Structure formats: C-alpha cells, structure tokens
Amino acid sequence: MTIVDEQGRPEPPVAAGEAATLLGFLDFHRATLAWKCSDVDEDGMKVTVGASAMTLGGMQKHLAYVEDWWLSVRLHGNEPQPPWDTVDWKADRDWDWNSAAADTPAELHQMWQKSIARSRELTALAMAEGGLDRMAARPWQDGTAPNLRWILVHMIEEYARHNGHADLLRESIDGRTGE
C-alpha cells in the first residue's frame, strides 16, 4: 500500500528491496516537482531568483528532456523523442531551459508527464530484461556504460538538486514554502 503525504506525494517504501526503494524515491522527487509547479501561472513559470536564469518552466522542460535522454536514449538506445530530435544543441546547449518561456504551463506539464510515463514503461522493460544490472545500450565516449541502477540513482540526484532550486523559485513567486 502506497502512503501519500499531504502534498500528494507517494512516500518511498521504508523496508523494500533495492529496486522498489530507488523507484519510490524517484517517484517522490517527481511528485515534489509537480507540487512546486502546481497552480503557478504563466508569469510565475518564468520567474527567476537572483543572478540565475533558472525558471520553474525551464526546470520542467529540462527534466522532461532528462527523462528521455537517460531512460530512452541512453538506456535503450532509442532516438530522441520530439521535440528533442530536432533541436540544434550546438547552437543552444540550454535549449530546454531557454525555450520553455514560449510554452504554457499546461504544455510544459503535459510534456513532462508524457516523458515520465514513457520513462516508467522503459524502466519496467529494462527491469524485465535484466533488472538493475541491465546495462545502458549507449555507452559514454570512453566505452563505459552505466547500468539501470546508476541511471536511477542519477535521476534521483537530478530531481533532488532541482527540487531545491524549485523551493527557492516557488517561495519567490508566492511565498509558499515546504520541504
């Protein structure tokens, strides 16, 4: 039975196997970002803090890209999904962050949720094909490849880091705070 906290986030299991624990923490962090972006209007999704150009909108689009990159492109060797497949990354390394200003909050949320749904399907497939030890289909330039375990831990780290940024951004938008 999944316990959900007052913000609607599924609590990670306290005494489960390695895979369930990793996936539980990843889902918790995904839900944390959803909470931080909930009920934020278009202007709010473009708010920055201090000298940073980071926005909640850019963060959602970036994490949609990260989901596709690690769990589809790297892990399974698939080609990037739209819109990532047509981006000139050499012209703008931060296209995911920068282009979000042209998207509505609903478009950003839908893109991100679609990426998460695809990632969950691809993770389940990888678990069936070798579990946490399943190696990524696309190695790094030096020929080494991470396994699914490493990718999931990296995804947790990515979300946890950006959720800290989201805390600051959300507080600057409307004063809402919380873990």
TrEMBL record:
InterPro entries registered for this protein in UniProt: DinB/YfiT-like, MST-like
Pfam families per UniProt: MST
SUPFAM superfamilies given in the database record: DinB/YfiT-like putative metalloenzymes
Protein known as: DinB family protein
Organism: Nonomuraea typhae
